[in-house]
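Researcher: Last one for today. Full complex below.
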Amino acid sequence: MSSNFSGALKLANLNDFIAPSQACVVTLSKNEKPVQKGLVQLQRKPAARFDQTLKDTDEPVRVTLHDCLACSGCITSAETVMLEQQSTTEFLNRLKSGDSAVIVSLSPQSRASLASHYNLTALQAFKKLTTYFKSLGVKAVFDTSCSRDLSLIEACEEFVSLYRESHGLQKDTSSKKPRSLPVLASACPGWVCYAEKTHGSKILPFISTVKSPQQVMGAIIKRHAWKMLGIRPDNIYHVTVMPCYDKKLEASRDDFLFAVDGAQSESQLQIAEVDAVLTSGEVLDMLESQQVEFMSLEEAPLDKLLTNLDEGDHLYGVLGGSGGYVDTIFRYAARTLFGKEITGQLDYRTLRNTDFREVTLEHDGKVVLRFALAYGFRNIQTVVRKIKTGKFEYDFVEVMACPAGCLNGGGQIKPKKEQSAKELIQNLESVYLKEVDVKDPFNNPVVKGLYDEWLQHPRSARALDIMHTTYHNREMSLGSKLNDW
Amino acid sequence: METSSGEPTSNGFVKPPDFRREESGRGGAAVESNGHGLGMGLTLRLVQELEGHSDRVWSVSWSPSGHTLASCSGDKSCRLWENLTTSPSSSTWRCQAVLEGGHTRTIRSCGWSPDGKLLATASFDATTAVWEVTGGEIENVATLEGHDNEVKSVAWNSSGTYLATCSRDKHVWIWDVQPGNEFECMSVLSGHTQDVKFVAWHPTKDILVSASYDNAIKVWAEDGDGDDWRCVQTLAEPGRGHCSTVWALAFDKDGDRLVSCSDDLTLMVWDTSADLADLSGSGQAQWKHSTTISGYHDRTVFSVHWSRVNGLIASGAADDCIRIFAENREDSSALPGESSFSMVAKKVKAHSTDVNCVQWHPTDPRILASAGDDGTIKIWEVIGDLSLVG
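Model: Here's the assembly. Have a good evening.
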C-alpha cells in the first residue's frame, strides 16, 4: 500500500485498499470477464487524465482513477504506485511530443521544500525552477500564491455572508438553501474525500464551496488567461507542483472538468482544469535523475502574469503554511463585521495539541468570532464529532489532513540524513516566509484585474459558477462492501 | 471462536483428538522434576450458571467494587448481574438490568470505569457506547464513532481519564474523557498490520498495550513533549514472541509483569518493570520476555487474567477449559530474573464449548467469572489452600 497519501485519506480507505494480489470488483461497461490475475489497469479515456495502459495480458478489469473516486474513493495499491510513477513520465512525454503547451503552476509549499533542500531562498528556488522547466519546453511557470489570493477573497466573502445570514443580519439571495455556520475550509482534498466518504450529508453542508488554489489556478488559466497566452484551452497541459499526493485525486474530480466547444465538430470537449500534479519529491527525482546541477542554474525572470511578485522583485503572500485561511478570513471578518483592524500575528491559543489551535475576537465584552486550526486525523475526529453532536462552538475551521499542515505534506522532500522531521518543518516554516512579504489578498493587483475584467466581483454569478464547487456523498459500492467482508 | 469477521477458525495446529493433559501433563511433571510440590492443588467449584443471553457471551467485566458483573453478547445486549447477598460465592446472582438498543450488532467487549459510574461497550457495529449507571438508572450518555469496522476491545486507564478502543481496522484509538461525559479523540494509532484484538492499560502508568492478529503486542505511550502518542515498543521478537494471534493481555497487580495468551497455545509472561519513559542515557529501557508457559493448552487460548488479589493467572480456551497458573517460588533452576509457572487447577468442560473470557473478582481472592460461546456466564469459587500457591 502506498504510504504517500494523507492520513485521513488512508484511514478512510483502509478497507478499500486492494492488495496487489486482489482485484477491484468494479466492472465497467462490456468487460464482464472475471479477473484472472489481480492486475488493475487504467483505461485510456478521451480526456487522457491520470491514465496509463499497462501491458495487456489477461484482459483484467479496467478502472480509471476517477471511476474509483466515484465508486467510493477506493484506490488500489497498484494504482497508487502508478500514480506516483506515471505523472512524471506523462509530463515529460507531453513536453517531448510538443502537442500541447505545458504550463506549470508551482505551490509556495513545494517552492519552500525545494528551496530548503538546496539551501536557497524561495525566490532563488523559484527562478531556478523556472529556468529548469523552460529548458524542458514548459511555456510558463506560475505561482499558486496568486490563485490562492483569489480563493481567499471568495472564502472571506463567503464567510462574512454566511455569518450575517446566520445572525439574521442579511438575506442571502444568491443561493436557495441557507447554509449555517460553521464553515470548514475546502482546500485540503484529503479532508474533503474523507468527509464525502465517511460522513456525507452530516458534514458536507458545512464545507466551504470555494475551490482550492490549485483548482482556481486551473480555472483561471483554462477559462480566461489562455487568451493572453494565445493558446487554446484544449491545447494547454496544466501541471501543478504540490506538497501532497491527495492533490492528484483532487485534480481528477469530475467536478473540475468543464465543457468547451470542440475544434473540429460541434461536439463538446471536456477539459480538466488541472491535467496532472507533480509532488515536490517527484520534481526533485526528476532533477536528480536528469543530473541537473540545480545550484548552477540561472535565475530566470519569473512569469508575472499569474505570480505574486511585486515591482521590487519581492515575492508576497499570506501568513500560514496551509493557505492562511484562518489568518486571512479572521482579519477580514473582524474588519468587515466589527470594524476592528488586526495587525501583526494572530494570538493563537493551543488546545489539546499543537495541531489544534484557536483564535477568538471579543467585541463589547462578548466573544463574537471563534476560529480554529485543526490539522491531522485525530483533530478532524474531534471537529466532526462535535459538529455531529451539536456541540460545535467555532465559526470557521481550517481543516487539514496532515499534522503540521501542508508544509508537512506527504509529497514534500524528506528530511536529510542528519535532519529530524521536526527540524525540517521548522526550517520549511522559516524558508516559506523568508524575504516574502505579507500582503492582503484584496490588494493583489493580478487578482483585482481578474475581477475587473472577468469575474466582476466576489460571489458574482460567474464567480460562483467557476470558482466554487459541490461535494458528493460517496456510498460504498457493493464491491467494496464485499471486499470488507 | 470468532467467526463473525470471517477469520479462519482453525489455527493450523494438528493435535490428536484425545490428547489429554490432566494426568500426564506438566502439572504432574512439575511435581517430579523440579520438586515444587505445587501439583494441581486447587479446584474450581461452580457457584452459579447465569443464563439470559440468547447468543454467545463474549466478555465479562467486574465493577471496581465487585458488586456488579457486566456481560456482553452476540445478542447485541449487555447484562448487569448482582448478588442478592454481599457474598459473591453465594448462588444468588440475578440479572438486574439489560442494556439494549445501544448497538446494532454484537457487543464484543465491556469495561467499567475505575470509579464504577460508567460502563463502556464495544461493538461490531463500529461504535463504542458509554453508559452511566447511577443508582437504578442506566443511560446511554455517549457513542464514540470513528473506527472503520468492528471494535474488539475497550479499556479505561487507571485514573479514568483515558479510554482506549481497538478494531479490525488495525487501529487503536485513545479518547480523552472530559467532564460532562464528553469524549474527545486524542490519538489514532496505527502500527499493527492486522486486526487488533485487545487493549489493556498498565495499572498505575498511562501506558497502553495492544494485542493483534499480526502476532505482535505493541506498547503505546505519550511522546516526550506530550503532543501525541506513539508505539514505544513492539513485543514480537522472533523466537521470543508469539507465533500466532495474540488474543488477550493482563498486567499483574503492580504492572511489573504482563501475561499474554495466544492462538499458538502458549501464555507468555513479560517483564514490564523497566521504565519506558526513561530515555536518558544511551540504552533505551525495554520490556523483555520473561517466560513462556507452554504444554498446557490444546487449543487457542482466548482469554487470560492476572488476579490483583491472589496473584494467580486464569486462562480460558477453545478447548472449553479454564486453567489456573501459579508462579513457582524459590525456583533454584531458574535464571536470575526469570520466573516459571505451573498449572495448579484445571476445569475441564467449564463451558460446553469455547471459553471466551475469564475475569478474577477485584476484591475476593476466590471468585472467578467466565463467559462462553454456550451463551452462559459462570461464577466459580477457587477451593484449596491459596497460601500455598499465591
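The longest strand of chain B covers residues 43-50. Chain B has two domains: 50-84+92-305, 306-389.
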